[in-house]
Structure formats: structure tokens, C-alpha cells
Design a protein that fits this description.
By secondary structure, the chain is α+β, with helices and mostly antiparallel strands. It has a single domain (35-185), classed as endopeptidase domain like (from Nostoc punctiforme) (endopeptidase fold (from Nostoc punctiforme)). 28% of the residues lie in helices and 17% in strands. It has helices spanning 19-30, 39-47, 64-75, 94-106, 114-120, and strands at residues 86-87, 91-92, 122-124, 134-137, 146-152, 155-158, 167-170, 180-185. The strands form 2 sheets. The chain has a 6-stranded antiparallel β-sheet. α1 (19-30) runs antiparallel to α3 (64-75) and α3 (64-75) packs across α4. The chain starts with 18 loop residues before the first helix and ends in a 5-residue tail after the last strand.
Length: 190
């Protein structure tokens, strides 16, 4: 039996596959959350320069929000893509999906632009990725032109324009693996 969410949280969006999506989410959250990092991706993450001293980043006030990011993202699977889309009913793009989830979980507003979200969130090494963290890619010959939400086990959820629906991909797949250009977290630094 599941416990009801705290009153301060808005309800999760209905998952298109109901029980299957819930079971998938629990399996992912309970499974291994290590990141299979290719040597090339590991080098890039190390050379990005993780400098956090003196900067203030947008951060969740509750550590549980990271896990909620995963549940919300999985609840959006198969939602249609729409360039500039910022809500599931009209369709989502990659930054719109992340911004919508963060706002529904925490009330914090993120910009609707992957590069601007990267600037306002705390950088971490790829090896430090935890479910609910953000992953960024260079897909348009510029840094942070695409993003997604890391869900654990080397996988992330994103809203791609190709094939037009929110879906799960592997970080080490042939397309995304060489294009990883950073990771960020919304958890406060300890």
C-alpha cells in the first residue's frame, strides 16, 4: 500500500500506463544508480571545470524532490513534443519539460532554455549523477542545446523532437554518448 503524498505537494500527473509506470519507477529508484561513463565523456566532464565557490544556484529545499523529479518524468512518457512547449497538455520540449516538473515539485521557476538552466544549476561530475539530476548535451553545435533528467542505471528521460514524444534513452547510446557536455544538480551542496 502506498502512502499519500504530503499535502504541500501537488499530485503526480497520471501515467499513461498506470501500474506499469509505477512499477518501472520503483524498480529504477531501487536499482543501481551508477553511471556508465565512456572515457571520452568522463574526460569532457572533468575538463568542464566544476567551479561552485561564490555562486548561488537554484536548489531544492527538500532532498526528496530529486526522487520526485524521476517520478514526474516517468509520468510524462509518451507526451507529445512541441517546440517551446511548457505543459503536458499542449506538448513539451526538453527545457519546458524540466521547467514544468521543477515548478510543480518545488514552486521554483526555471528559464525555458537548456543553456540558461545549466547556468543556474550547480555543476557536478558525471560520475556523481543521482536520479533527479540534469544531463546536458551538445546537439546543435553549441553547449547545452539539449537536456534531460537522469533516472538512474545510465538512463535519462527527455523530450526529443525526433519521433516526437517524451521517452527514455541511455547516456551511452551512439547518438547521446559523444554529445554529453555536462551534468547539474538541483540539490543543495552539502
Amino acid at each position: 500500500m502506498t502512502t499519500p503524498p504530503p499535502a504541500a505537494h501537488r499530485p503526480l500527473p497520471a501515467a499513461p500506463t498506470g501500474l506499469l509506470a509505477t512499477l518501472l519507477a520503483l524498480t529504477i529508484l531501487g536499482g543501481c544508480s551508477s553511471v556508465p561513463v565512456t572515457p571520452e565523456a568522463g574526460r569532457r566532464a572533468d575538463t568542464v571545470g566544476i567551479e561552485t565557490a561564490g555562486r548561488e544556484y537554484i536548489a531544492f529545499e527538500d532532498e526528496a524532490h530529486g526522487r520526485e523529479m524521476v517520478l514526474y518524468a516517468l509520468g510524462l512518457l509518451d507526451t507529445g513534443y512541441r517546440f517551446g512547449g511548457r505543459n503536458p497538455e499542449a506538448g513539451l520540449d526538453c527545457s519546458g519539460m524540466v521547467a514544468w516538473i521543477v515548478e510543480n515539485i518545488s514552486g521554483k521557476r526555471l528559464p525555458h532554455n537548456a543553456a540558461q538552466i545549466a547556468e543556474r544549476t550547480r555543476p557536478i561530475a558525471l560520475a556523481e549523477l543521482q536520479p533527479g539530476d540534469l544531463v546536458f548535451f551538445n546537439t546543435r553545435q553549441r553547449r547545452h542545446s539539449h537536456m534531460g533528467i537522469y533516472i538512474g542505471d545510465g538512463r535519462f528521460v527527455h523530450a526529443p523532437s525526433s519521433r516526437g514524444a517524451v521517452r527514455v534513452e541511455r547516456l551511452d547510446n551512439r547518438y547521446f554518448g559523444p554529445r554529453i557536455d555536462g551534468a547539474r544538480t538541483l540539490l543543495a551542496a552539502n
